[in-house]
Amino acid sequence: MKLIDVINKATSEGKAVGHFNISNLEAFNAIVKTAKKLNVPVIIGVSEGERDFVGVENAVALVESARKGGAEIFLNADHTYSYVRSVEVIDAGYDAVIIDYASKNKEESIEVTKRVVEYAKSKGPHGALGNPGTPPILVEGELGYIGQSSKVLDALPEGVLIDPNSLTQPAEAKDFVEKTGVDLLAPAVGNVHGIIKGGNPALNIERIKEIKQACSVPLVLHGASGITDEELHLAVLAGISVVHYNTELRVAYKDALIKSLEEHKNEVAPYKYLKTAEDAVAEVVEKKLRIMNDL
Ligand SMILES: [Zn+2]
Asked: Structurally, how many domains does the chain consist of?
């Protein structure tokens, strides 16, 4: 199945597709193993920084090899901050790209997002210039600023506002989708990138419903790390189709790695001391996938 069909199927069943970021092979393997174990589709995300570390083309090779191994897995170029870097991943064969101009002014954001959509469509069969057999490349647009770093934070990132007036408005979401032609939309609905010490703000579930009603495209929830299981469940029921996790995986990986290195001070084989870090990532992924997929 194509990614858009997988997303639409999940949405119609009241479920969501899990999107998990990776920086390395351990996290990748943990996600693939878990998705296969639960028999659910999954999206691997690599932001600009993550794909520079992993290798833009290496990420494609990893996903292709996991597909051959039976996993229903897709590759997304997470937060991409320029047209040039969007073109790079579209040409490399990614399934989806997020052009993120949410921190820029509205006109500029619409203009660049639209150009990325046009380029992606020129490459796939849902565009007039599509090559037969090429899967459609989905373009996700961002509307509303939710911060940019997936880490543990002391407070809300500067520029992130969570009062109802500052969140994405249904009418502006509709306008943005229509003007840009994006396939997926990431709104600001109280979500924030990163885990905030002392607790992340609550999601505005009503606003998710309103945006879902106003827009024709699937909605993506970014910054799901730090939100409660109950909120995740409600967000999916309200109309979220894809859910992004990064920080919780990073924290689980690092904590397990530190513990492992302390416990095995003389061990030098990475595949031995990294094993528990991989398992820790898998545990988080499984918990989230079970909620999203009603398992
Ligand atoms: Zn994000």
From this structure: 1
Q: What is the CATH number of the domain that holds 14?
A: 3.20.20.70
Q: Quick one: which of 104, 191, 107, 109 has its CA closest to 146?
A: 191
Reduce the DSSP state of residue 155 to 3 states and report it: coil
Domain that holds residue 159: 3-292
Task: Name, in order, each residue with C-beta under 8 angstroms of 40's C-beta and a sequence gap of 6 or more.
Answer: 18, 72, 289, 293, 295
H or E segment and range at residue 4: helix 3-12
Q: What is the largest CA-CA distance in the chain?
A: 60
Neighbours of ion ligand 1 (CB under 5 A): 222
Question: Distance from CA of residue 142 to its chain's centroid?
Answer: 12
- Whole-angstrom distance, CA of residue 294 vs CA of residue 197: 28
CA dihedral (235, 106, 98, 11) in degrees, to 10, reads: 30
pTM over 0.85: yes
Query: What is the residue whose two structure tokens read 């193993």?
Result: 33
- In the numeric block, the tokens 């992606």 are attached to 120
CA 262/CA 92 separation, integer angstroms:
40
Catalytic residues: 78
Residue 252 Cα to ligand 1 middle (Å)? 18
Ligand 1: distance of its center to the CA of 146 in Å? 8
**Each residue's pLDDT tens digit in the chain (295 positions)?**
889 999 999 999 999 999 999 999 999 999 999 999 999 999 999 999 999 999 999 999 999 999 999 999 999 999 999 999 999 999 998 999 999 999 899 999 999 999 999 999 888 654 333 344 445 789 999 999 888 888 998 888 888 877 888 899 999 999 999 999 999 999 999 999 999 998 888 999 999 999 999 999 999 999 999 999 999 999 999 999 999 999 999 999 999 999 999 999 999 999 999 999 999 999 999 999 999 999 9
Name the DSSP letter for residue 96: E
d(CA 229, CA 209): 18
